[in-house]
Amino acid sequence: MSYISLYRKYRAQDFDELLGQEHVTVTLRNAIAQGKWSHAYLFCGPRGTGKTSTARLLAKALNCERGPTPNPCNQCRFCTAIQAGTLVDVVEMDAASETSIEDVRTSIIENAKYPPMEARYKIYIIDEVHDLSAKAFDALLKTIEEPPPHVVFVLATTEFHRVPPTIRSRCQRFDFHRGSIADIARRLEQVVRAEGLEAEPAALNLIARFADGSWRDALTALEQVIAFSEEGKIQVETVYHALGVLEDETLFQLTDALIEGDAAKVLELLDAQLLLGREPRVFAESLIQHWRALIQAGVHGQDQAGYYDPTLWSAMIEQARRAGIPRLLGWWEKMAGALTEMRTSGSPRAILELTLLMFAIPTQAPASSATPLQVSEPRPETSSTPRPATPAPLEAPSGQPPSTPAPAPAVATPAPGDDPNTRWQHAKAAITQNSPNLERYLAGSTVRVENGVIYLTLRTRLGYNFFTKNPKNHQAIIRRVQDAVGLNAHVEIELDESAAPAPAVEPPPTAAPPDLVGEELVEALKSTLGAYPVDDE
Question: Is there a single domain that holds both residue 162 and residue 202?
Answer without folding.
Answer: no
